Amino acid sequence: MFEKMKYDDKGLVPAIIQDAGTGEILMMAYMNEKSLRKTVETGFTHFWSRSRQKYWKKGETSGHVQEVREILVDCDEDTVLIKVIQHGPGACHTGHRSCFYRDIHGREIAEKTFSEEKVYGKKDN
After folding, report:
1. Which secondary-structure segment (H or E) carries 19?
2. Among 96, 106, 99, which residue's Cα sits nearest to residue 47?
3. Beta sheet of 25-31, edge-to-edge order
4. H or E element in which residue 33 lies
5. How high is the pLDDT of residue 1?
6. pLDDT < 70: residue spans in the chain
7. 62, 61, 63, 9: which is closest to 32 by C-alpha?
8. The predicted structure's pLDDT at residue 81
9. Which residues contact 24 (CB under 8 A, 6 or more apart)?
């Protein structure tokens, strides 16, 4: 299946990460063939960072890993949906459980579930 995926011109596909128990969408990131294979092999999500140009395992710094329960491919074979058990209080580097914590007007609709400063250290602006 890895070879059949329709990767974009940079070799990436969007990966939607969903809580296997609640159905909540936790995040969206990008995978290439190598990170998708590593996800399948290890049972934990791995991604390709477009900004840092490197592979990363979700939770490698925070400990908030995502244990894979199921991987689905959409009808066009250009997006994956990964159902996970989210370990730790959240998936978002901002301290929220989900990356989708704001409405279209920018209002926060969910509270933080952890302190990103305590988990990741002081961020420079």
Report:
1. strand 13-19
2. 99
3. 25-31, 13-19, 80-86, 66-73
4. helix 33-42
5. 77
6. 122-125
7. 9
8. 98
9. 18, 97, 98
d(CA 98, CA 84): 13
Q: How far is the C-alpha of 118 from the C-alpha of 88, rounded, in Å?
A: 14
Distance separating alpha carbons of residues 58 and 31, to the nearest angstrom: 12
Helix (H) or strand (E) holding 38: helix 33-42
pLDDT of residue 121: 82
Predicted confidence (pLDDT) per residue in 30-45, tens digit: 999 999 999 999 999 9
- Rounded CA-CA distance 58/67 in Å is 10
Q: Count the Cβ atoms, other than its own, within 10 Å of residue 114.
A: 18
Q: Do the beta carbons of residue 80 and residue 36 sit within 8 Å?
A: yes
3-state secondary structure of 39: helix
Q: What is the largest CA-CA distance in the chain?
A: 42
